[in-house]
Amino acid sequence: MTRRSCAIYATGIVCAHLLIVGIALVVAQVFQTMIHSRLKKEITLTEKSQMFEGWKNPPPPVYMEYYFFNVTNAEEFLAGKKASVKQIGPYTYREYRPRENVTFLENGTKVYAVNPKTFVFVPEKSAGNPEVDVVVTVNIPFVAVMNELNSYSFFLRTFVSMYVNSLGVELFLNRTVHEVLWGFKDPLLSKIHGMRPEVDEYFGLMWKKNGTHEGEFVFHTGEQNYLDYGKIDTWNGLRKMSWWSSNQSNMINGTDGAVFHPLINRNELLYIFAADLCRSIHLAYVEDVDVKGIQAYRFAPPSDVLMSPKDNPTNEGFCVPAGDCLGTGVLKVSVCREGAPIVVSFPHFYQADPMYINAVDGLNPNKEEHETYLDLQPTTGVPIRACKRAQLNVILKRIQGFPKTKHINETIFPIMFVNETATIDDESAAQMRTLLLIVTLVSNFPLLIVGMGIILLVVLVILFCRNRQKKTAKDDTAYTQVSDKPDEPSETPASQPMRNGSYIAMSPVEAQKC
């Protein structure tokens, strides 16, 4: 057997093995199963501690942008006209939110943590100085007092109204953005504090929320089931709430929005428990997006999350008391926020009933600026980019005994909205791209084997064809004349036999005589 034939046979054998093994691995999805098993598998406490280091101190910077609705016609509104507002902001703060007191429980299947948040003003990302800029907004402490007295007698309300007037308290107040946000000593609350010390004499939308946490959480680590990774087991010792009017509405579902299980698909609903909203919400797949070269799935709350119970009966449980429901796009959370009748919505009443948008001039809801969304890398479940947007409103209506309200039209009045944003940093994005590249290469390794088999098959065909060509050429050479002399006419008689022809191995010689 020649060397060329050996090469052809060897190439054929290797090609066949590569194709058979590669196709078998592709069909069996061995490497994909191996990676998925690695993502799902149970891990030791040491590995879990290392994994949760990034969870304890998330690298992406988080920013809180505060926008306020400055009232431009307070007197006209009190006289019965439609309110008019102008958006001011943003006033941006860097949010630091490390997880502290992290403790693993029940053999590493659960983990306890608190999440204190600290805010630091970032002037270069802000539109003004919060300690200088003044905003005209609703006097929420006054509204809280009126709302608290609404169930009392008319005479008591009238007496309190006269006392409030003597203090110079109005339905609208002028304060700096910093005071409205982080707190000021309110004259009405100060008087109440003198009679009821448990009532704080300071008021601010973020009063006592800088450096504090939203409660004590216990999370599942996903050791027993990877789908439970990051899900909340208890919040402040509770597995369900008691504020709402149905068991479904009181459920604490999903994660806190910081982590999700790996291997996310487009068809599932993701649940997040929002402590500031006192409820869980779900997010649905919207589209594929690219964030810093990383492919991600975008999830956002569908319109049915805050839909009216008339259109979505599952939301009836958020009507408190039962049957006392608002329209689409708004949620009354005063049941878990004692005091004023507070209502939350998306900014500018995005996805809300048009009657709320039309009740106030100066609102312009749009998807780009006011939608809440979450971009997740589906293989790892890691949030790549997030925008959480929520608006704080208060219900203003006529209350007998308080003459200041006798002409106003009942309105869900916008106060401010927040835009909480986080995007993966460049260093983490580079690490994520490298990780995904490795995962892709390993997952597609069987295809590489098949590809190599196909290449060898092409080489085998080429070698075989060239070998056949050379063999054919050799056979043709065996029957070509070697004499260079031209053919001469024969001088022998026709009866004389012709000489032997001039062929290889048959040299022209005279016939031997016997």
Please provide a written account of the structure:
With 514 residues, this protein is α+β, with helices and mostly antiparallel strands. The chain starts with a helix and ends in a 37-residue tail after the last helix. The longest helix has 33 residues, at 445-477. Strands 1, 2, 5, 12, 13, 14, 15, 16, 17, 18, 19 and 20 form a 12-stranded mixed sheet that branches. It is elongated. Strand 12 (270-274) and strand 13 form a beta hairpin. Helices cover 30% and strands 25% of the residues. The relative contact order is 0.13. It has helices at residues 3-28, 30-40, 45-56, 74-78, 140-149, 154-166, 177-182, 187-195, 354-358, 367-370, 426-443, 445-477; strands at 62-71, 83-96, 100-105, 110-114, 118-121, 134-138, 172-176, 184-185, 202-203, 216-220, 232-235, 270-274, 279-291, 294-300, 330-332, 342-345, 360-361, 373-377, 382-396, 411-423. The protein has 2 domains: 3-38 and 440-465; 60-424, no CATH class. It is built from 12 helices and 20 strands.
